[in-house]
Write a structure and sequence with these properties.
The chain is an alpha/beta fold and 222 residues long. It is built from 8 helices and 12 strands.
């Protein structure tokens, strides 16, 4: 499970990253909402833990942008003891839960389990781009009603691209989402998998779905 932490307190951010990683999570961190939004647009995150009081773009502004862009990810807000007004506003804006500072780490883990259970129950099982359909539960792919066989890695890459269709994902962001930040992969691995996908989902269908943005990365467009 991959978690994005937004926190401008460097000591707390470091502690959260260390303890979450020790509990088996892949963790990325940002210091404000603007930076966090850039991470989130790349996709691949299962939960966001966001402080409310941050510079540049605060937690509520970040949450508003996330929901306005219809990014479907659970958000847990971190707030100070006197932030009850922010809590109510945040929940009304689409936050999934909140936790008050200071907090026990075990409580944060419980909140993460809670929002991921809720999300799993409500999340759609299918993704679409034009006449391409991915069934996330059965991990099957069809285009124009024709079944397409993909490897596990090909499916994960295609699902990432379709989930973020019309958003350009860099090779680095794709690598982080598919492999995690600590795993070594060949520098051209993503390009190779893109080539495999194009052969399987485009060659016999005429209409191109996967587009290269030169010098940046890849995107799926309907």
């Amino acid at each position: 499970m991959k978690i994005l932490v937004l926190e401008d307190d460097e000591s707390l951010k470091a502690v959260l990253k260390k303890r979450l990683a020790a509990n088996g999570f892949t963790v990325e961190c940002a210091s404000d909402g603007e930076e966090g939004l850039a991470y989130l647009r790349a996709g691949g995150f299962d939960v966001v833990i966001s402080d409310i009081m941050m510079p540049v773009m605060d937690g509520l502004e970040f949450l508003s942008a996330v929901r306005a862009q219809k990014i479907d990810v659970p958000v847990i807000l971190l707030t100070a003891l006197d932030g009850s007004g922010d809590i109510v506003k945040g929940l009304d804006m689409g936050a999934d839960d909140y936790i008050v500072k200071p907090f026990e780490f075990s409580e944060l883990l419980a909140r993460i389990r809670l929002v991921t259970r809720r999300s799993a129950g409500s999340r759609q099982n299918t993704l679409t781009a034009g006449d391409l359909t991915l069934d996330l539960k059965s991990r099957t792919v069809t285009r124009g009603g024709k079944s397409i066989s993909l490897s596990a890695r090909e499916f994960d890459l295609l699902a990432l691209l379709v989930r973020n269709k019309n958003i350009v994902l860099s090779r680095e962001r794709i690598c982080d989402s598919l492999y995690g930040t600590g795993e070594y992969i060949e520098s051209n691995a993503i390009d190779v998998y893109i080539r495999y996908l194009r052969k399987k989902i485009e060659e016999d269908f005429g209409v191109k779905l996967i587009h290269t943005v030169r010098g940046v990365g890849y995107t799926v467009k309907e």
